[in-house]
Amino acid sequence: MADELWDELQNLAMGREDPELFIPHEAYASTVARNRLILIARPLNPRAQNLFTVISSLPRIWGLAARVHGRVMDDTFVQFLFQSEVDLISVQRREPWIFNNWFVAFQRWEDLPDFDFLTTIDIWVQMRGIHLPYVCEETVTQIAEALGEVVELDFHDATTTQVAYIRIRIRFAITDRLRFFRRVRFDSGETTVIRFQYERLRRFCSRCLRFTHLRNYCPFLQPLP
């Protein structure tokens, strides 16, 4: 009863009608500059990724324990403050990162973030099964676009030395379903089944094929057809 009364008192409009307090730019100018060296991170399965453990462990994994400070923002996001642009870019170049067998999505600080801030993650995908006569940049790109936005293609007709599989970096929404196979028909009439292998993927839901939870906690209760 006492706790309920205390909560009600805190929610009263005490002070809401007081004149607003003005904060000059000088008070937070240094913070604005420091924010440029911040990465915001979103562990995709908070149930299995304790946020305080994330902020203490990832800097050690990066080899930057003495030069990166982590902070928990809320129950979804954490932030990492870097001391140098070089260290920050080094971490970004090696994405995606894994903690406790689940992905962690990263995005650089934005003063005025868009509505889709930190709702995507870039993952390298190995594409296998394209018959040799059809292997080219255009074919690979068209197939990859069926998965998501193509960010980078690690294949060039003139310089690539192997075609057993082709690597594509694809931007996925964190709510997207993974697809592991895709049937393709070429203009010649020939068909084949393309297989997708997601690099660094450790765990995902076997019911809905998303990488944010395990089957036991799947919010999509309808069984797959």
TrEMBL record:
<dbReference type="InterPro" id="IPR025558">
    <property type="entry name" value="DUF4283"/>
</dbReference>
<dbReference type="InterPro" id="IPR025836">
    <property type="entry name" value="Zn_knuckle_CX2CX4HX4C"/>
</dbReference>
<feature type="domain" description="Zinc knuckle CX2CX4HX4C">
    <location>
        <begin position="173"/>
        <end position="220"/>
    </location>
</feature>
<dbReference type="Pfam" id="PF14392">
    <property type="entry name" value="zf-CCHC_4"/>
</dbReference>
<dbReference type="InterPro" id="IPR040256">
    <property type="entry name" value="At4g02000-like"/>
</dbReference>
<feature type="domain" description="DUF4283">
    <location>
        <begin position="33"/>
        <end position="111"/>
    </location>
</feature>
<dbReference type="Pfam" id="PF14111">
    <property type="entry name" value="DUF4283"/>
</dbReference>
<protein>
    <submittedName>
        <fullName>Uncharacterized protein At4g02000-like</fullName>
    </submittedName>
</protein>
